[in-house]
Amino acid sequence: MKIIGSAKLMGAVAFMLAPHFVSARSQQADIDITTPSGRKVMVTAVNDNIIKVSNLLPGERIPASAASVIKNYTGDATVTTAPGMALMTTRGGIVVRVDSISGAVDINAGANKAVSDPGLRTSAGGRQSLSLSTMGSGSFYGAGERGHSFNLAGDTLVMYNRQNYGYTEGDPRISQMNITMPLFISSNGYSVVFDDYAAAEMVMSNPIVYTSESRSPISYYFINGAGTLADATRQLSALTGRQDLPPFWSLGYITSKYGYRTQDETVGVVDTLRRAGYPVDGIVLDLYWYGKEQDMGRLAWEPAQWPDHKKMLADLKKQGVNTVIISQPYILRNGEGLANYNELASKGLLLKDSTGNPQEVTIWVGEGGMFDMANPDTRAWLADRYKQLTLEGVGGWWGDLGEPEVHPETGIHSNGLSTREYHNQYGNDWSAVIYDMFKSDFPDTRLMTMMRGGTTGLQRYSVFPWSTDVSRSWGGLQPQVKIMLNSGLSGLGYMSHDVGGFAIDKEHPYDPELYVRWLQLGLFSPVLRTHAQDTAEPYKYPEQQDIILPLIKERYRWLPYNYTLAYENASQGQPLVRPLNFYTSGSRKYDDITDEYLWGRDLLVAPVMTQGSTERQVIFPEGLWVDYANPSKFYHGGDTITYPAPLSVLPLFVRAGAFLPQADYDMKSTGDYRTDAYTVNYYPYLGKSEYVMYEDDRKSTSSLSDKVFSLITFTGDASVEGINIDVTAEGTYPGAPSVKNMTFKIHLIDVRPSEITVDGKKLSKGAWKYDSASSTVTLPVKWTVTRPLHIEIR
């Protein structure tokens, strides 16, 4: 049976449903057939919404899955057979037909959610190919970190991690970046994951052709969502893994530079930030913590530059500042890393060449060897070093150059894989070294690991990736939304960027306008971390302090909302940065909008990303939207407007009906955050709306698994007669306050209310305020969380 294109696929679907099968229940919920040619085809229900398809030559076995975190398959499916075919139907609505003669596999999960696999596997020149025809029109997203386009349909995507120093918008290199993943997600609400990490390419046409250099047979997963990207990402992350809740401090402001060279300089930067009024939660130390560039692989503090690093780490921690330090895959011989090189080489822990000797590696600052992350003994050696440094007070880890940036193709890893077979997986295994060490030795500490290389599933190791060494230019700023969108849809919810731009053009090293606009984007990015080769810190822009200081303080006001986004990522796999069509079934109409995004469900962010602009065009997704700065202005889905945006203005819009909780007080760090005081902005709209805010102790690593948290539900019901607000709490945690001081700001109130009641008691007019200029009611309430809170405004 040969199926090409959607017309044939529709015929196959109709045939699948023909009533001539003999039913037989499969306890394994799978199909396992052998074709006359001896090829084995296996289809397994991983769960009700995910199936795995494998196609094996005689004697081949399915390798252990690298993509999936699901070990125990629980799919509830019915398998029926008839001469020449088998049919599987899962409880989640996936219907699979396998032709037992040709090995063809047809998968259908509803309108425009169908793929056809002809069962053919071609091999040539050490490469194997498989193809999937798709039904219906649609866009494709994901595939890891991709900066050239949001919609990937029609592209040929190379799956081989690569560093692109100083890239900009339109640079063809950024179709292949540092984190490549052989997966895609469709605007029609399904996704496909190829269970592979070898060098490969994925042609996103019809059929989709996946060609890999792996020597092992390649299975793929078909994942059925409920028609939206929101549900498809939820299902995809159930397969590839979800990120743990982040360290709360990682949601604050982090300062970084290439690089702080001494203890005095590091302490001075933090002191200067604090004197200027900046809150700060982290500082990142580049390669000078161990001496100089040539000392790479030393993994020890240089005492001449850091005479008392333990005291520095402890003192910074007391101030609420966590220190993150860099580590790389290389151990150089031309510096203080020589002793480690000799030890690792003698123990066989380095990448080897074809003769079994350490593979020679040359990078921009010297020569040496490379950690073999495929070797369990190497990982154990490295984990011990990381453990000792963490015990001294290091707060987080930075894995740089982890594509790896230089990875000689003559190298052989201890698992027998060549460089091109193992390259993409290197960053995952490196991240796992730190993650597993924390789980073993620091089980009560949440982890932040900055990593810029890896592949499918990287997020499950508490990784906070960034878009690497971007150009400090307007062209460098412009791809960042696309990078965050495609990464987020691939599972990497915390993809961010070097705010301000890293790689400096010597002819244009200093651009305050660019710095401000980049910082505005960073305000609503998963990590707010300034970083550059020079002039990285916000106080280096004195003439813009009236804009920059309030921006960084604003990051802290949004902590209640942002921490709830972290909960949505950890519990459901939802990205923090979401495309405009995230909640719209089958929508492709916003594919070309690559300079706007949803921050969570209820905030539309439209950063200014072109030089000299004092206004920008804004296109609104489905729904009704309120101007955050001027709530008297409404916009409807599909509207296109020109919005005034001088340098001090970041255009923001709120979904009508939304509740936005904020922390409306100054903080020096996230350590000053409180869960007994919130300002809750409500934008009532006719009908009911709901928002759920997440709380826990912000420290525990088992809050979700142990269900030791609280969900605060805000429900609004607005009509022409008035507004009802209900607040309830479910669950609790150690240290949870019993009483909360809630200040409600109810916007869009055109006339002064005649009456406000709280829990049935009418308030005096002095107990609340009405501002006719902003059409806002401000209502402070003390809420005992064990009892529901009910507010009526008439």
Please provide a brief summary of the model.
With 794 residues, this protein is of the alpha+beta class. The chain contains 13 helices and 46 strands. Among the domains are: 167 residues, glycosyl hydrolase (family 31) (Immunoglobulin-like, Sandwich), CATH 2.60.40.1760; 120 residues, Golgi alpha-mannosidase II (Immunoglobulin-like), CATH 2.60.40.1180.
Q: How would you describe the overall organization of this protein?
A:
- This protein is α+β, with helices and mostly antiparallel strands.
- Among the domains are: 167 residues, glycosyl hydrolase (family 31) (Immunoglobulin-like), CATH 2.60.40.1760; 120 residues, Immunoglobulin-like (Sandwich), CATH 2.60.40.
- The protein has 13 helices and 46 strands.
- Strands 1, 5, 6, 7, 8, 9, 10, 11, 13, 16 and 17 form an eleven-stranded antiparallel β-sheet that branches. A seven-stranded antiparallel β-sheet has the order 2-3-4-18-15-14-12.
- Strand 39 and strand 40 form a beta hairpin.
- Helix 6 packs across helix 8 and helix 11 packs parallel to helix 12.
- It is globular and about 85 Å long.
Unreliable stretches (pLDDT < 50, length at least 5) are 1-27
CATH class of the domain at 5-136 and 190-224: Mainly Beta
Distance between the termini: 68 Å
Beta content comes to 25-35%
